[in-house]
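Batch 3, record 17
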Amino acid sequence: MNTPTPAHVDGNAAAGVLREVFAVDLTAAVGQCDNCGCAVVLAEARLYTRAPGMVGRCPGCQAILFRVVRGPDRTWLDLRGLRCIEVSLPDS
Amino acid sequence: MGIVSPGFSGRRRTADLPPGQYLTDDFPVLSAGPTPRVRPEEWSFTITTETGREHRWTWREFRALPTERPTVDLHCVTRWSKLGTHWEGVSLDTLLAGVETTADHALAHSYGGYTTNMPLADLRDGKAWIAFRFDGEALAPEHGGPARLLVPHLYLWKSAKWVRGITLLTHDRPGFWESAGYHDYGDPWREQRYWGD
Ligand SMILES: [Zn+2]
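Prediction for the assembled complex:
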């Protein structure tokens, strides 16, 4: 008798892959602007830092790609302006 | 002798500051994007009610309304405060006088796409203005000109620069910073900086 495979698992199972993504230097990652569709190396985003948070905008269309708010003991990351991020991994 | 901040230069003291704030005499410019350049002749201000009814003022119509000259303290969530600033603007009481609504929430929106939310009650009773002059001069684009919302009893991110309208809502809708970690209400005296504060 097979135990039915659950449709989803605990989010903790994503720890490995997320660590792999977020422990790298994301400025080298390539994202796709959700507004205009162009590919943007995050380091080439127009970054506005004289604000309550950090705002990265698309160099092509000015749409917001990402926002980072840094509190004393927490940080918030909003990536909704990016459709997908491509991160190069070291040889594995 | 009272307790005086190191940057003390005038008549006000650190006792006038909300917790965690320091006093500054200049007026730092904060911006999350390029500065919109909106000429008065292309500017308009619209209040949209929860039923979709629009009340719109052109610049000329807006400037024909009675104005007030509030002197208020500004408290930015990035921790600077500027005391006793002089503005001229139209009270939201004046703008809301002919607006029929039962909404409890408001979302201000700006040229350039910025938004910020607050309870509608915080825009009433002499607490908020659409300001078009600072220190006797036309409001510079860097500070939100031609006109900005001024809600000085809340952190300054609520005082939307380049304001173009306010939407009245039956449900709260978090704005630009409120949806990215900053407090939904933002009372500087209760130090409501971030979610959960
Ligand atoms: Zn784009």
